[in-house]
Amino acid sequence: MKMILLKDVKGLGKEGDIINAKEGYSRNYLLPKGVAKEATKGNVKVLEEKKTANKLKKEEELNQAKALAERLSKLTVIIESKAGDNGKLFGSITTKDISDALKKQHKIKIDRRKIVLNNNIKTLGDTEVDAKIYPNVTAKFTVSIKQK
Prior knowledge:
The mean pLDDT is 94. The chain is 38% helix and 32% strand. The termini are far apart. The protein folds into 2 domains: 2-65, Ribosomal Protein L9, domain 1 (3-Layer(aba) Sandwich); 72-147, Ribosomal protein L9, C-terminal domain (Ribosomal Protein L9, domain 2), CATH 3.10.430.100. With 148 residues, the chain is an alpha+beta fold.
């Protein structure tokens, strides 16, 4: 019996897959649990439309992420902090500080967990920082630390 999976089922397939299952298994487990529905022409057509809509949505998100990455690569974020005579900061600049400065200065909201810093910034000057915006889309931008 052909079935469309509504949820991931270990050993059978992922959500949206069309599978062949034994009739007893389909009637006694898959259908009552709401894990699958019968693969009629109408249900298959709805599934195809849903897959097409998801594909278009993902493409749109990717295009927006690329545009944001391009915009970010042209920006410089300026953060003022107290520092000693030798240019060493009192404290350090973290991803949260960078995220807050991006939001305040350029109206771009990026989660601090998506900003990649190998070590916190502890000196004055410019530093290249990466931001993982979307899978396989990374933007590099400059963070400039100035003395208060």
